[in-house]
Specification:
Shape: globular
Oligomer: single chain
Strand order of the largest sheet: 6-5-4-3-2-1-14
Largest sheet: 7 strands, mixed
Number of helices: 6
Helix content: 10-25%
Structural class: alpha/beta
Length: 225
């Protein structure tokens, strides 16, 4: 499985021949100016919640690629009205796709579309595939619900928000990695706005002190596991 960081909370994930895009907020992000959304491949677009900084490029990518949206019922319904195909889910539910099993997990946050309309309840995703198991937390606070995840499967890589203010910060993300029983963490949702700028060196040292590996990819960089 290859994970490419597209900035903020946006990811590109390759599972075999299948391409997934997660929470595409790319074109307005000055830090991601070198990413061309028209060059992205996508069979599925996973959306954790409806905030603008997670959905702004959804329509363009979906219409360019024919991708199917995977998200909560309200978000899938919203895009279905625009002619975009989707697979609706809700918390605790799982579905076996061709690339692997997807579970929609709890997240503690808010969710509304840019116009203020209801975006359903926020969530995260567990991907269980033949190439590895991945937890994408979405925008969330630290929650004991994360302790349920290792009861379901072993996580090889946890992608956790670390920017603080709107989500968990570094200290809470370290606790979250304990809860999900995964020592390999990829940080995201940081640096994009003034509220969430972090000290990279301090964050890495904090995880190292806890016996964990924090991966902070540059935008456009990838990792394979």
């Amino acid at each position: 499985m290859k994970v490419t960081y597209l900035g903020h909370a946006a990811l590109s994930i390759e599972v075999g021949e299948v391409h997934l895009i997660v929470d595409p907020f790319i074109s307005p992000n000055e830090l991601a100016k070198d990413i061309d959304i028209n060059a992205l491949q996508a069979d599925f677009i996973l959306i954790t919640h409806a905030h603008q900084d997670h959905i702004v490029d959804v329509e363009a990518i979906a219409k360019n690629t024919g991708a199917t949206i995977i998200s909560n019922y309200e978000i899938v319904t919203h895009y279905g009205a625009k002619g975009i195909e989707g697979h609706p889910m809700n918390h605790g539910g799982s579905w076996q796709f061709d690339f692997g099993k997807v579970t929609y997990t709890n997240a503690i946050h808010t969710s509304s579309f840019p116009d203020g309309s209801y975006g359903g309840q926020p969530g995260g995703f567990i991907l269980e595939t033949e190439e590895g198991n991945l937890y994408i937390a979405g925008d969330t606070a630290l929650t004991f619900d994360m302790k349920l995840i290792p009861m379901q499967c072993n996580i090889d890589l946890a992608i956790l928000p670390i920017g603080d203010n709107f989500t968990m910060g570094v200290e809470s993300a370290i606790h979250a990695s304990d809860f999900v029983e995964c020592n390999n963490i990829m940080g995201y949702h940081y640096d994009t706005f003034g509220y969430i700028v972090i000290d990279h060196e301090d964050a890495i040292k904090a995880f190292e002190k806890a016996g964990k590996n924090l991966i902070l990819l540059g935008i456009g960089e990838d990792l394979t596991f």
